[in-house]
Amino acid sequence: MKTDILIIGSGLAGCAAALAAAKRDVEVTLLTRSPQPEESSTFWAQGGIIYQGANDSPQKLVADILTAGAGLSSPEAAALVSREGPRLVKEILIDELGVPFDESPDHSTRWDLTAEAAHSLPRILHHKDQTGLAIQRAFIERIASYPRVKLLCAATAVDLLTISHHSAEPLDVYKAPTCIGAYALDQTTGEIFPILAKETILATGGLGRVFLHTTNPAGARGDGIAMAYRAGARCINMQYVQFHPTTLFHPSGRFLISEAMRGEGARLVDGRGREFMTDYHSDGSLAPRDVVARGIHQMMLESGEPCAYLDISHKPADQVRERFPGIYAHCLKYGIDMTKEPIPVVPAAHYSCGGISVDEWGQSNLHRLRAVGEVACSGLHGANRLASTSLLECLVWGTRAGAQAAAFITGDDDYYFPRIAPWRYEREPVDPALIAQDWLSIQQTMWNYVGLVRSAKRLNRAHEILRELGLEILRFYEKAEVTDAMVGLRNGIQTALVILLAAMECRQSRGCHYRID
């Protein structure tokens, strides 16, 4: 299969890139491992996307981003997203796609802009507590109207194709590092086939699933990080993994309780009803995410309580149900009526601030490989992401990467595609019990030793465990039949090791990376 642009991942970043490229009439192949294109981290995003508040300015947003980023955010990246972001929200999301953002109830302004932690003023657009879902559906519907966009669902990217790694011509090893597409697995037939592309854009999302507790969907296994790392792409700031302070504490698993709830007045309290966050930060429950997550963690350690509680029951019940229908319904399903009682919450791995190093157009250090969204590191988030910048970053960098990649597309004669060796199939059956146990080992090790609070002893212990496990998984992968689950396990251990090694090298506490030694 050949295409002009291969985009791996169908969340907002991938969709924004696909739409921008499709408008320039190039051939786009959008690949996703999910059976439905809507399934992505974007689909589950609750809070909202940054727009422009009253008396707001790009300079104010830049200041908030840099403050939250703990001195590590790129001023250039912050200026770019602050300048371009609100314009693209209006032009694409509001005017072109008609995303049904909530309007102001008193009609004093058009939009109901809410506040979130570490923002100096209300500037967050939202669709109730299901903003990502509304954006995602609008994008998928629009992309489907372009005949030159081909959507491949239930197709797993196995590895990036590079000239130096995969060419059948030995002398190609001397050519500049260049990505020429990817191997893809058809989950239905088990066939693995190459997709050759003039430009490849990684938009695979996050890596939260390498931790025991996470807000991320099942596909957030670090696939893009692992593939890019093996191909030779530069990955930076991987130690900065943001833990969301508030996820539902329940045996059914973790469910994100949006930061917008605290923006709307919800209070974090302990088991006695005391607002404990003022012990750790003057902004209390609206402190930056890493501070709140560690504050909850510390309160639990000191008190012996299994969780904290998020209380919005002092607000009018109708208002709470109207503003947070998804969270209300989910909690009620498990017997928690948040209009009458507090929600039990604990921190969980939420967002990777690091990723594949890219420039302002999403270009990596590998020729013809771009990365956008959470899998990329533009420098915007620094050591700690400001709330609701993630969807905005996806929109800005996705649009720019897709547009520039399409602009660069020329005739076939201008691109070198070497002969690629056919895939060598192995047929040893995959034991799901082994995969499940290996994943549990990865997740528990990362949570206990490379989680909210780190130290040299914890990181060294994790290194011993994960290094040995990595060798076992590699031997497992070499002989096993390739399935989506097997690909995910291989990528999960690779991503966990990349995070761990970055954490071991960084001896200074900053933002999400907190060391007690």
From TrEMBL:
Per the database record, which ranges form the Fumarate reductase/succinate dehydrogenase flavoprotein-like C-terminal domain? 442-517
Top-level class of the enzyme under EC nomenclature: oxidoreductase
Q: Which SUPFAM superfamilies does the protein's record reference? A: FAD/NAD(P)-binding domain (SSF51905), Succinate dehydrogenase/fumarate reductase flavoprotein C-terminal domain (SSF46977), Succinate dehydrogenase/fumarate reductase flavoprotein, catalytic domain (SSF56425)
Pathway where this protein functions: Cofactor biosynthesis; NAD(+) biosynthesis; iminoaspartate from L-aspartate (oxidase route): step 1/1
This protein's UniProt keywords: FAD, Flavoprotein, Oxidoreductase, Pyridine nucleotide biosynthesis
Pinpoint the FAD-dependent oxidoreductase 2 FAD-binding domain residues: 4-391
Its localization reads: Cytoplasm
* GO terms of molecular function: L-aspartate oxidase activity
Gene Ontology cellular component annotations, sorted alphabetically: cytoplasm
The EC number(s) given in the record are: 1.4.3.16
Q: Which reaction does it catalyse?
A: L-aspartate + O2 = iminosuccinate + H2O2
Q: Its biological function?
A: Catalyzes the oxidation of L-aspartate to iminoaspartate.
Q: What is this protein called?
A: L-aspartate oxidase
